[in-house]
Amino acid sequence: MTRVDPVVVTATRFEDRALGKPVNVTVIDAEAIRNSTARTVPDLLAEQAGFVVHDFFGNNAATTTVDLRGFGINGAQNTLILVDGRRVSDIDLSGVQWSAVPLSAIDRIEIVRGGGSVLYGDGATAGVINIITKSPASRPSTVIVRGAMGSYDTREGVIEGNYARNGVGINLIATDFESDGYRRNNQNRQTNALADLRWAGGAGDFSIKLGTDNQGIRLPGARQVQPSAGVNQLATDRRGASTPLDWAQRDGNRASFDWNRKVGFGEFTLGAGWRDKAQRSYFDFGGFPDYREVALDVWSLTPRAKIDLPVFGRPNSLVAGIDWYRWEYELRRSNSTTNIGQPFNTIAARQDTVGVYALNSTSLTERLTASVGGRRERLSIAASDRFNPAAPGGAFGSGAPPASQRTYESAYELGAKYQISPTVAVMAKTARSYRFANVDETYETSAAFTNQFQFLKPQTARSHELSADYRGGKVGARATVFVIDVDDEIHLDPYSTGVGNRNLPPSRRRGVELEANARPLPKLGLAAAYSYIDAKFREGVLAGSPFSLQNVNLAGNQVPLVPRHKASLRASWDFTPATRLNALVSYVSSQLMDNDEANTLGVSIPAYTLVDLKLTHRWKAWAFAAGVNNLFDRKYYNYAVRSQFVLDRYNAYPLPERNGTVSAEYQF
Question: Can you list the domains of the chain with their CATH numbers?
Fold first, then answer.
C-alpha cells in the first residue's frame, strides 16, 4: 500500500525523510506498483486523492492528461511532471509522453501536493509528480524477460538486465508495445530503451541516465452528439472513427548526468541534462489537410546544495540552488508530407529560464518544524514566423511579426508541522506559485484571422492548506483541506474570435482530500481515497463573438472538467503465499464538458464507476498475472468538448469497455 513518510527526494531535492517536514507527500512505491491493477502511470495516479484523468482513447496513455486539484483541461500545465528530478513538461501543448517510462522501469512515484514553485519554478501550482526510475545499486544482478497480450490485439515485451558490484551498477530496460486500440484507426506502437549507470566512490556518486522512446499512433477523432439533428454516434457507432486519415509520430531521446558529494555539513549536487523531441502529425480536416513537424531540444543545468548546520542550537537544513533551462523550438507547417520541404509557416522560438531559490527548514522544538522559502525566476523568449505564400497551401495564410518577451516572477512558501503525538501530526502551508504561457498558447490569430504572437501575463496563484496525519501500526490516514486562488489563469477562450488563449478572470479551487490505508488481517491490505473539489470563477465576463455565445458572465460558474466527487477503494489479498488478488473500485462524479464555461449546455459527462481486478501468482522463477479492467463493461468517457457554434452539439471520446491482459515473466 501507499506509504506516507518514507525517504523522498522531491520535497527537498535531496534524499531526506518527509517525517517532520511540512509537506504533503505521498509515495507510490515498487510494491504498490506491483499490487496495482494499473497499466500506466496515469492509471496509478488516478487511484490517489485529488487526481482526475482525462483520456481520449484509452490506448497506453498515449493522449492522456492528469489534473490535480481541479484545473480541468489545463491540469497538465499546472502540475509539474519530473522524471528523475528533471522536467518533462515542455513549452508546447503536446503533453507528457507517459508511456516513455513504462511501469516496469519505475522504482517509485513521489507526489508533493500544493504549490511547488519555490523548489521547481514554473508550472507547479497544484503540485509536483516525480517519476523515479530503478537504480542498479538497490537491486541484485539479474535478467528479467516479460511478455503480455490482451484485448484489441495488444502485445507487449520487456527485457531488463541489472548488474551491481563493488559500487558500480548498470540497469538496462527495453520495451515494445503494440495495440490496435479500442477504436477504429487507433493503432499504437511504442518502443522504449533506458540505461542507468552509477558509480559510488570516495569522490562522490556519479550517475548517467540515457533513454529513447518512439511512438506512432493513429487518431480516430471524436464521436459527435447533436440531439436537434438526430445525431448520436456514441449510441450508433461508439467505436468508429471520424478522422480515419489522422495520425501522429513522436520520437525522443534524453541524457542526464548527476554528481553528488557529501561533506561534513551537508551535500552538493551538480546536474546537467539534455532532451530532444521530434513530432510529426497529419490532420485531414475534411480535405483541408494540415501536416506539422516539430523539433524541440532542451538543455538544463541544476546545481544545488544542502547545508545541515544548527541555528541557535536547533537542527536546521538549508537547500539552495540555481535552475537553468533552455528550449529551442521549431514548427514547420505544410499541407502534406511531400511538401514539408517547402513549408508555408516556419515558427521558431528560443526560451531561457533562470531561477534562484532557497528553502530553509528548522526544528523549533522537538515537535515543531517550520520552513520558509523563496524563488526568483526570469523568463526570456524570442519567437519568429517565416511565411512563404508561394509554398503549396500558403496562398491564404499569413506570418506573425517577430516578437519577444522578458518577464520575472517570484514564489514563496511558509509551512509548519507539529507532531502532537508519536502517531498524530498536523501541517499547515501557504504558498505563491506561477506559470508562464507556452509557445502554443502565444502563437494565435487576430480578430482578422492573421497570425501573431500574443504574449500573456504570467499566471499566479496563492494556495493555503491544512492537513492532519495519523500513523498507527496497521493504519495510516491523512485529511487535507485546501484553497487555491488563481489570477490571470492562462486558458483557451472558446467564445471570442481570434483571441485564442488569454488570461481569464480570477478563479478559486476549494477541496478536501481524504486518504487511508490499513492492514486488518496479515494477508489483507486496504486503501481508500476520496476527493471533493469545488472549482469556480470568482468574477468576470467573456465578450464572445457573433459566431458564438456573447457576454458570458463567469461569476460563480463551475470550471469545466472538474468532478466534485471522486473516490477509490483498493484491496490486496494474499490468499496463498504465492498468489495475490488485487482489486480496485473507482468512482468519478459528473463533470461539465470542456468549453462549457457558460455552464449552459445542459448536458454533463456522466458519472461512472469502474471495477478492475488482477490476479498474480509466483512459481519458482516465474511470475504470472491476469487482469480485467472495467469488469462490468461500463460504457463511459471522461473527456468531451462542447461546440462553440451549435448550441446542443458536443464531441465525446469513448473509452474501452471490458478488456483483459495476461502476462508471464521469468527471472534468471
Answer: 7-166+178-211+218-244+264-667 (2.40.170.20)
